[in-house]
Amino acid sequence: MPEGSALAREAAERFAQAVEGAVAARNQAFVALSGGSTPKQMGSILAREPYRSRIPWDQVHVFWGDERWAPLGSPESNAGEAKRGFLDLVPIPPENVHPWDTGMDRPEQAAAFYEESLRNVFDKPIGVPQFDLVLLGMGDDGHTASLFPHTRALAEEDRLAVANYVPKLDAERLTLTVPVLNAAREVLFLVAGPGKAKTLAAVLEGPEDPEHLPAQLIRPERGALTWLVDEDAAASLDARVR
Ligand code: 6PG
User: Fold this and answer.
1) Mean pLDDT of each 10-residue bin along the chain, 242 residues long
2) Residue 64 and residue 30: Cα distance in Å, rounded?
3) What is the dihedral of CA 127, 34, 80, 120, to 10 degrees?
4) How far apart are CA 146 and CA 163, in angstroms?
5) Which pLDDT score is estimated for 52?
């Protein structure tokens, strides 16, 4: 009996295919991970066979779409959790793993530094780098990455990475911006659980209101957009699309 939810297994397979496609076409693959429970399960699937051997890890670069202002060792850290849960268990070169540097003095510095690393690793001094795969979750308030409703980062058009203070959490977050997410070749949302049902229906079928539902901002310009959702999260969608 394979472990992990069907959603996580599908995500793992799509991760492998996106990496294989990118490596075949361009010799390397650039992926952005998200926090959340489904990516965690996906990671533990990727750390085991057949994926552990199938994925050309030395040609994969891993970034994170968002991060909490917490040290890598904290269970709050998206990158820390992914490292402990799977990246430390697969043969990916350490220099291909690019966590946000939350050891800096201020979140704004960490964001500026992340932007610089993106430019260096993608070898893209100007313009917007193109991820091969961006994994995203959706919060039950409609946030994605750390683009929370009514926060400043939603309107960012120039920066690739920003610090985003979230008043309702009274917390600093770090996030890639809408232009970077929408430049990806493939964006994959992973949404599970009954708590997401109403918001998912509002995001996909409700009126446009991205200030209130930031997940609506994600519309890759040329890439593919896929919503992988489980039955519980899909429960409020119009029956015709289910
Ligand atoms: C974070 C995430 C965030 C997450 C959603 C959904 O660090 O908070 O990156 O955007 O993906 O909150 O999380 P779940 O899938 O666990 O509900």
Assistant:
1) 79 98 98 93 97 98 98 97 97 98 98 98 97 98 98 98 98 98 98 97 98 98 97 88 58
2) 11
3) -10
4) 9
5) 98
**Where does ligand 1 bind, in terms of residues with CB under 6 Å?**
34-38, 66, 68, 78, 137-139, 143-145
Distances (CA, A) of 18 to 14, 47, 62: 6, 16, 13
95-130 burial code (b ≥16 CB/10 A, e <16): ebbbbbbbeeeebeebbbebbebbeebbeeeeebbb
pLDDT at 152: 98
- Which helix or strand (DSSP H or E) is residue 163 part of? strand 161-166
pLDDT of residue 240: 53
| pLDDT score recorded for residue 1 | 37
Residue 4 is predicted with a pLDDT of: 73
Beta bridge partners, 77, equal: none
Map tokens 């979140």 to a residue.
Answer: 107
| 50 upstream amide cis, omega within 30 of 0 | yes
Continuous segment of H or E residues that includes residue 203:
helix 197-205
Helix (H) or strand (E) holding 229: strand 224-229
> What is the C-alpha to C-alpha distance for residues 208 and 238, in angstroms, rounded to an integer?
17
* Alpha-carbon gap, residue 39 to 60, rounded angstroms: 17
Q: Which of 5, 33, 63, 66 to mutate to test the pocket of ligand 1 (most atoms within 8 A of CB)?
A: 66
